[in-house]
Design a protein that fits this description.
The chain is of the alpha+beta class. It contains six helices and six strands; from the N terminus they run αβαββαβββααα. Strand 5 (133-147) and strand 6 (150-162) form a beta hairpin.
Length: 278
């Protein structure tokens, strides 16, 4: 029975300081940019929704103020001017049916969706036939609206602001931010590589000098620049260690030379007496 072969673990690939610093900088930069983009997108969406709700409330308040002064007879165009910048207006007749619509793509179903919800800001989302929008149904007792098809005693006016356009705006903003983040990261990578290449040049020179010393150039020393930086302090410490080692080796050589010289004379004498003895 054959034994399964054990896979020999491969030694880990060396990771350079340049790569570690570059990855760390890019990760921090990416986290900051992405976090800022998400916060900006959420802020933009909240602002657009808040602006639409305020527009509905302000328009409804103007209608209430106008009707509080007494019964009114207005044309449909005058209502549009009164509630601007609301994009959609639906006039409901005394029978509760839609009498007239004006504005940006408001379907008839909005009448049923807001029935019984007077003076409330209603959000409509994910409806099969109604686009995403916010709605406010305002009772308008005493309001007569002159439409192109006749005169209507309006029982209510439905004001709508489409929010799907705002969602498209937010989506477009997110796509632009994503492209901006990608371009920024690429530019930051190139810039960081150039900066690291220049900043780590002293370490490269130190590595080259250390390699030369290991190859036999005992008098070679690591370069220093007198800036009292971390690399300079490291180079000075390593140079001091090499100097201590050189002095120790010189002392050993000197001791060996002195010992051989001191022992040569008595050994010669002993050798002569041994020859005479033989």
């Amino acid at each position: 029975m054959k034994r399964p072969r054990r896979s020999v673990p491969r030694p880990p690939r060396p990771v350079t300081i340049r790569a570690r610093i570059l990855v760390g900088v890019l990760v921090l930069l990416a986290a900051g940019l992405i976090g800022n983009s998400i916060a900006s997108a959420l802020t933009l969406r909240a602002y657009l929704e808040h602006r639409a709700e305020n527009a509905l409330r302000d328009a409804g308040d103007r209608i209430h103020e106008t009707l509080a002064q007494g019964p009114r007879t207005v044309r449909s165009g005058q209502i549009a001017a009164l509630v601007a910048p609301v994009l959609g207006i639906t006039v409901i007749g005394p029978d509760g049916e839609v009498a007239q619509q004006a504005g940006d793509g408001v379907p008839d179903e909005i009448n049923d969706l807001t029935a019984g919800r007077l003076d409330q800001v209603v959000t409509v989302e994910d409806h099969p036939t109604v686009p995403d929008l916010i709605v406010r149904r305002i009772p308008t007792t005493g309001l007569t609206v002159i439409t192109p098809t006749g005169v209507v005693q309006a029982s209510a006016v439905i004001l709508t602001v489409r929010t799907d356009v705002d969602r498209v705006t937010v989506t477009d903003f997110i796509s632009r931010q994503s492209a901006s983040v990608a371009i920024t990261l690429v530019a930051a990578s190139v810039t960081a590589l150039l900066i690291l290449e220049f900043g780590l040049r002293p370490l490269k020179r130190m590595a080259d000098a250390a390699g030369a010393i290991a190859s036999g150039a005992r008098q070679e020393r690591l370069p220093t620049y007198g800036r009292r930086s971390e690399t300079d302090r490291l180079a000075v410490a390593v140079n001091d260690a090499f100097d201590v080692q050189t002095r120790a080796e010189d002392n050993i050589r000197s001791f060996a030379a002195d010992a051989s010289h001191e022992l040569r004379t008595p050994l010669s004498t002993i050798s002569g007496w041994l020859d005479l003895y033989h």
